[in-house]
């Protein structure tokens, strides 16, 4: 049976329908039905979008698992996108990562999908953005896990409302953190594996020192939290801190402004990817988006004339 590509059809069709829609995003991203669905989803955001980044092995997937549990207990429906960086090289290898979740596979309130990073200069694949926009309209929380080392943390900034950076005790991550100058980017820092004792406390002190030097991002002071996903410590506090950041963004139109900026950057990137810098120049003022205007529809319009 043909899949009806509307939000209401996806809401009533459950996980299987969402999975089929995502497959279509991948196979026929420019088809009118996909553009219409993404535009509908773009105009009906519902979820808060959290981007989680940090080096491999820091404990992101384990924390994702713990957060899903906490959010489900709070009655929220959760979608997770795990971005697989290795496929940037191998061209489509599946996540060799621990995405096996200890959650109920029958639970319709959890959707997890891993995605290839694909070849793209310095950014997450365009597909990640499309998937995020769709999930944002269907769930209450969207969590995107992506490996970040050095400057690539900025990738997730173009996609998430709240950026969470994970640091492992005793790993030198906290020093890396200071050197790379990424201290301005995350909204929350999590020291993982807090069950490791003094090393965790030391990592927290290092990161707090780095943050106080950087001065933070204007009107939001990034909390540095210690979490042991394995022992279930600090996860509730982290979920509360994410909610506090969401409430902060909701004030004074911050969230709308940030999302509009994300959409603009996405559109410009997409045009550059397809038509090069010359295409961006020719698109000119048509790259400008106003609140509520779908970047997906605009890309389709531009593609027809560039
Ligand atoms: N001691 C301890 N180990 C953890 C904790 N969370 C994750 N780990 C371990 O750290 C390793 C990497 O975890 P994973 O979630 O796959 O990290 P990712 O690569 O960042 O996604 C695994 O062996 C986990 O069992 C924790 O809270 N405490
Ligand atoms: Mg992982």
Helix and strand layout, with pairings?
Blueprint: H1 7-27, H2 32-42, E1 48-54, H3 60-73, E2 78-84, H4 87-90, E3 110-116, H5 126-138, E4 141-147, H6 154-157, E5 162-167, H7 173-180, E6 188-191, H8 198-214, E7 224-226, H9 235-250, H10 254-283, H11 295-305
Parallel strand pairs: 1-4, 1-5, 2-3, 2-4, 5-6, 6-7
Helix pairs in contact: 1-2, 1-5, 2-5, 2-11, 3-9, 7-8, 10-11
Overall description:
The protein is of the alpha/beta class and 306 residues long. It has 2 domains: 208 residues, P-loop containing nucleotide triphosphate hydrolases (Rossmann fold), CATH 3.40.50; 49 residues, no CATH class. It has 11 helices and 7 strands. Helix 2 crosses helix 5, helix 3 crosses helix 9 and helix 10 runs parallel beside helix 11. The longest helix has 30 residues. The radius of gyration is 19 Å and the shape is globular. The two termini are 36 Å apart. About 6% of the residues have low confidence. The chain binds guanosine-5'-diphosphate and magnesium ion.
């Amino acid at each position: 049976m043909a899949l009806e590509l509307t939000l209401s059809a996806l809401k009533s069709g459950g996980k299987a329908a969402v999975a089929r829609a995502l497959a279509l995003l991948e196979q026929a991203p420019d088809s009118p039905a996909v553009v219409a669905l993404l535009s509908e989803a773009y105009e009906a955001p519902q979820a808060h979008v959290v981007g989680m980044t940090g080096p491999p092995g820091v404990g992101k997937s384990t924390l994702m698992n713990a957060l899903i549990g906490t959010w489900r207990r709070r009655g929220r429906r959760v979608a997770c996108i795990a971005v697989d960086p290795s496929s940037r090289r191998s061209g489509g290898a599946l996540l060799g990562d621990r995405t096996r979740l200890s959650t109920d596979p029958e639970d319709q309130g959890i959707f997890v999908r891993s995605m290839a990073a694909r070849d793209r200069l310095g950014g997450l694949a365009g597909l990640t953005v499309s998937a995020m926009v769709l999930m944002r309209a269907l769930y209450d929380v969207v969590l995107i896990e992506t490996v970040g080392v050095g400057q690539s943390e900025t990738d997730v900034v173009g996609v998430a409302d709240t950026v969470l950076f994970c640091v492992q005790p005793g790993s030198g991550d906290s020093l890396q953190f200071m050197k790379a100058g990424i201290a301005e980017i995350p909204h929350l820092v999590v020291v993982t594996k807090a069950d490791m004792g003094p090393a965790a406390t030391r990592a927290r002190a290092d990161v707090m020192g780095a943050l106080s030097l950087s001065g933070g991002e204007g009107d939001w002071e990034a909390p540095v939290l210690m979490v042991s996903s394995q022992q279930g410590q600090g996860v509730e506090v982290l979920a509360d801190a994410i909610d506090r950041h969401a409430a902060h963004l909701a004030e004074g139109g911050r969230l709308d402004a940030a999302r509009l900026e994300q959409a603009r950057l996405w559109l410009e990137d997409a045009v550059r990817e397809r038509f090069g810098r010359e295409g961006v120049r020719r698109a000119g003022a048509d790259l400008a988006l106003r609140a509520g205007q779908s970047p997906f529809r605009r890309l389709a319009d531009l593609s027809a004339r560039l």
